[in-house]
Specification:
two-stranded antiparallel ribbon; single chain; about 240 residues; about 60% helix; 11 helices; 2 domains
């Protein structure tokens, strides 16, 4: 059974948080003690893992699909170009820029692009602890490949329009591996608690799909064990009544 990566876990949490935009989902969890404090905790823990600043609570209005698609296309193009450019010529900068970062889809693209833009800004600033030695060359190469200020500004404007995340103005130093592991554990524990409650409180198939999970194919105890160990359980659609 494949284990979930940090990015996959963050995507699960983001799906649950964004699902709370739906009033029926919010009402169902509220009846089981979910409060604004719990919502804020989820966004805070996700921020600690992704190093982005997340608005909490998000607006109930859905993301603009055209802007989200445009940002996804930006990610597909420039992540690939940046990775190909830096992997051969400035390996240290490549590994720093793409650490725990990969292409995504759907709402998660806002987190991935924001993290990329944040790190790119740090490379350009030439400030901060732990910057790669080849940062200046990496910035020069990326500009030559077309990743200009105008291209970066376009992505930043799309992120701002989606209003899901914004780049934090005062960023802390890069977390250590130990700190990152601790943040990941705390984030996943938060998700396990509320996702399992949501599975019990919500029976409508459309809402379960909105939250990014469906009932496990095998027994609930075995499925819980898999998820608690960070493994990807097999799933199958569920039938249910209204919440």
């Amino acid at each position: 059974m494949a284990r979930l990566t940090l990015g996959q876990k963050a995507e699960r949490v983001l799906g649950l948080l964004l699902g709370l935009r739906n009033q029926r989902v919010a009402d169902a969890l509220t009846r089981h003690g979910f409060t604004n404090r719990d919502l804020e905790e989820g966004w805070t823990l996700l921020r600690q893992v992704t190093r982005t600043h997340l608005d909490a609570p998000p607006e109930r209005a859905p993301m603009d699909p055209d802007t989200l698609e445009a940002l996804d296309q930006w990610e597909n193009r420039w992540f690939a170009i940046a990775s190909a450019t830096l992997a051969r010529r400035t390996r240290e900068a490549h590994d720093w820029l793409f650490r725990n970062l990969s292409q995504t889809e759907g709402p998660s693209v806002v987190v991935s692009v924001s993290t990329f833009l944040e790190r790119l800004a740090e490379l350009k600033s030439k400030k901060g602890a732990g910057l790669p030695a080849d940062a200046a060359l990496a910035v020069k190469l990326l500009a030559e490949r077309g990743l200009t200020d105008d291209v970066v500004n376009a992505a930043e404007n799309m992120v701002a329009e989606l209003r899901t995340v914004e780049i934090a103005p005062d960023l802390p130093p890069q977390p250590t591996e130990e700190e990152l592991a601790k943040s990941e554990q705390m984030l996943w524990s938060w998700y396990l608690e509320w996702s399992q409650i949501a599975r019990i409180a919500i029976k409508q198939r459309a809402l379960l799909r909105l939250l990014g999970f469906l009932q496990a194919e095998r027994g609930s105890k075995e499925a819980d064990k898999e998820e608690q160990e960070g493994e990807e359980p097999q799933v199958t659609p569920v039938d249910g009544a209204q919440v």
